[in-house]
Amino acid sequence: MTTRTRIDWNNVVQDVVDMRGEDHTALIPILQDIQRSHGHVPREAQNAIAIALDVSQARVAEVISFYSFLTEEPQGQYIFRLCQTISCEMDGKDEVASALERALGIAFGETSEDGLFSLEYTNCIGMCDQPPAMLVNDDAFGGLTPQSVQDIVADYRRKGEER
Amino acid sequence: MKTNEEVREQEEARDVGTLVRVTINGREYRARRGATILEICQENGIPVPTLCAHDDLTSAGVCRICSVEIEGSWALQTACTMEVHDPGMVINTHSPRVRQARRAILELLLAEHCGDCYTCAASGTCELQEIADDYGIRELPYERREPRFEPDDTGPSIYRDMNKCIQCRRCIRTCDDIQSVGALGVFARGPEAHISTFADMPLGDVVCTNCGQCITHCPTGALREVDHTPEVWKALEDPDKHVVIQTAPAPRAAMGECFDLPPGTSVTGRMNTAMRDLGFDRIFDTNFTADLTIMEEGTELLLRLKAALVDGDTSMKLPQITSCSPGWIKYMEHFYPDMLDHLSTCKSPQQMFGALMKTYYAEEQGIDPESIVTVSLMPCTAKKFESDRPEMVDSGHKDVDYVLTTRELAQMIREAGIPLPILEETSFDEPFGDASGAGLIFGATGGVMEAALRTAYEIVTGREVPFDNLNIEPCRGLEGIKMASVKLEGVVEEWSFLEGAELKFAIAHGLANAQTVMEMLRDGELDDLHFIEIMACPGGCLGGGGQPMPVNDEIRRARATAIYSEDEDLPLRKSHENPHVAYVYEKFLTDGPCGHKSHDLLHTHYTPRGRELK
Ligand code: SF4
Ligand code: SF4
Ligand code: SF4
């Protein structure tokens, strides 16, 4: 992700629409596909999706703005989502949060310059038995400590740099 | 144990629409099964406050201000969504719990609401203000939220100030369901949620028709028209300007509502007096150019028919579609840019008037067109956009300088302290004084078609349209899409190729209905039609986005009745019999309808826009 070539979003959208169909009910799967493959659904793509599905651009954009797993802005290759709901909040979330910011070198809501990491909060991820917990893309981690967070980040940094 | 009565009622109740017994506030009522509690309360005169509900829209249940208590139900229910099914429902609309809940909802709404009633265009018609007043809200228990939004004042027609928005979503449902445009949406969630456009673009830059239906369906002052009154006041105050106003047919049927007269009160003559008192130099009737439109558009239709039926020329598209509704035109340009050649090339009556004002009228009266300011009174916000279109300068000047909505002129009349309801009636000024009833009914859905038929039929057959008292009933009423036909028999020599032909036409109002018609046309289902009338707003211009609020079908029908009865009382009922129109063709547009000069001044072209947003 460090070097970005210009993406032809019309083609990206067309390929996904060919697979998912042109019915407006295909909107969410289409958005998920593009989010997964490209890390975000920029306005250019939203515009093309609207026209392909014959819905308004506003409809596409409001769906993206509603779901936190869909984003308009490019995201890092690894998205760290720390749970901010009660069990985690009560059991050390704040220390883990600071440790994450230090280890990743970015604040919550930011993406690292090399495009490797994004950091954000999430609401409950169903791991209230192992607080504090977080997701890194689709991987779940529980019982976090400032120390374990450092190791996890180092792991992903290595993976990312190998790619 | 159920009593026999209850068992019988329950059996009856299986069919929607049968009557069931309900108790509201301790009194018994018979209610239609399947009706909402809100409908039952309204039918029986029991006040229930509403904000997100509107007669034109399906229930959303988002504002919760209509909460009521139902015996046996733990939570309060929203009256607008809760239907009555089982007999014996016991409802309370003003129990302490209900009142407390509504007050809490209201206080929270108001804590989020940034606006001062005394600087707000909605003051007096605002539903939020009215409920706050009913509840006697004198102070707020919460700290008020800081304004979050920059108002959008960049558009040609619509002004948006989302700081006043209560997120009832009526504008969104209107734009989606009535207009099929989808310019608006709800973005983000929770405390960040807000109504906006794609990428927060100015409304003037997205796919929006400027129809203003979002305004007439908004309960607050969050949406209003772009205000032209300061410019008009300035022109009126300038002694060197000759300020003329043309008035469309729909405002006169609704203006009275701004002065507490019942809907359906026609105030034509009183409004003329009020405009004179405001200082307009001449008061003209847009119906005059509506008559002219019929001459041009009717001739265009006959030419298209001749091209298709006699010359086998397929470049002239049929059916011809009307072009007098600028919201509709912009809709076509966005959604059907490949079908623009179905549109009549005629300008709208407003723009024809403007073009004539600064040419023919200026010449006739010996006035320098530079010093003429043309104002138009319209039921419509899209007319503001239309007057700003870059091509609308065929007179060599901006053809129409300013457009006032019915609401804006009412505002000016109030500011001047002119007592409209008790004014004496005066007529329009010459040389455009008399217009026909055919021009007048342009204000209602079906009116352009009816006016065109009164003229076209007579031109082709030499006889009046075969309808009782010239009232072409199949063109009238609020049905979304109307289709009908008239058989042409005993035609005159010149039009002999039309002998025995069945002139088929369709009428649609509201852009969702227009879309249905256009899809049918695209699919080849309407190939046998000759003429289609489309108006962007529900009910036609009389339900336009610049008309007084509130609006619903009952009010639209009342306004339509005012227009049709005024038509029936006029001595002149057909556009081609308007002597002033004949005079203009004799003296000025000398090569006749659709001739060179009228092509230069009275016809236009369209811009394919598509739906792509940059
Ligand atoms: S929207 Fe209504 S309540 Fe708000 S300032 Fe305007 S009139 Fe007052
Ligand atoms: S003006 Fe008409 S098209 Fe534009 S947002 Fe309002 S309702 Fe939609
Ligand atoms: S702009 Fe008006 S109609 Fe739209 S959500 Fe806000 S208050 Fe409701």
Under CATH, the homologous superfamily of the largest domain in chain A reads: Glutaredoxin
Low confidence ranges of chain A: none
With strands numbered from the N-terminus, the spatial order across the biggest sheet of chain B is 2-1-5-3-4
Structural class of chain B: alpha/beta
Averaging pLDDT over every residue of chain A, what do you get? Answer: 93
Number of helices of chain B: 20
* Estimated share of beta-strand residues of chain B: 5-15%
CATH superfamily of the largest domain in chain B: Fe-only Hydrogenase (Larger Subunit), Chain L, domain 3
* Amino- and carboxy-terminal Cα gap of chain A: 10 Å
Question: Globular, elongated, flat, extended or rod-shaped: what is the shape of chain A?
Answer: elongated
Tell me the count of domains of chain B: 4
- Tell me roughly what share of residues is in helical segments of chain B: 25-40%
Could you tell me the CATH topology label of the largest domain in chain B.
Fe-only Hydrogenase (Larger Subunit), Chain L, domain 3
Order of strands in the sheet with the most strands of chain A? 2-1-3-4
The largest chain-to-chain contact, stated as pair and per-chain residue counts, equals: A-B, 15 and 19 residues
